[in-house]
Write a structure and sequence with these properties.
Layout: E1 2-7, H1 25-36, E2 45-48, H2 52-65, E3 72-73, H3 83-91, E4 97-102, H4 106-116, E5 130-134, E6 144-149
Parallel strand pairs: 1-4, 2-3, 2-4
Antiparallel strand pairs: 1-5, 5-6
Helix pairs in contact: 1-2, 3-4
């Protein structure tokens, strides 16, 4: 199984609610660059936080890769959700190659939990950073970090 963890691209600094912040032009560019690193990899599904910036990020990736399936909204992928809850939701899924689009601190803590078995060893994830993990099952401490890509920030 492969899981790709993608943090949303750069977003507007403010909106009426944090969940409503949209991607900036720079953020859209960052996402497309990161999407290029997914090219050629099979993606069976995309799950994204309900926040606007994550939905926009996921849709940009879906379009860039030419994927037919819809982006699925996962209400348990918001910034302050518990990565242990994410593992519980992933446990019942059938996809072998899954892209999760979320936020900090969740995305870094989730990577740390999957690779090291601990949320305290979070993986640093900038905007549009992409981490590739693989293993038999999405279980704490049993996945291997294959690669991390951080777009350059100017």
């Amino acid at each position: 199984m492969k899981i790709w963890l993608l943090r949303h691209g750069e977003a507007e600094p403010q909106a009426r609610r944090d969940a409503d912040r949209r991607l900036t032009a720079h953020g859209r560019k960052e996402v497309l660059i990161s999407a290029g690193h997914l090219s050629g990899h099979p993606i069976d599904g995309i799950l994204a936080s309900p926040y606007v910036r994550a939905q926009e990020t996921a849709e940009l990736v879906r379009e860039a890769l030419g994927l037919d399936g819809a982006v699925h909204t996962a209400p348990w992928l918001t910034p302050d959700d518990d990565p242990r809850d994410v593992l519980r939701f992933l446990d019942g899924r059938g996809e072998r190659n899954l892209l999760l689009v979320s936020h900090q601190p969740l995305i870094g803590s989730l990577a740390g939990l999957l690779v090291h078995g601990s949320r305290s060893e979070a993986l640093p994830m900038n905007t549009a950073s992409l981490a590739e993990l693989e293993g038999e099952f999405p279980v704490a401490g049993l996945m291997r970090l294959v690669s991390v890509y951080h777009p350059r920030h100017h």
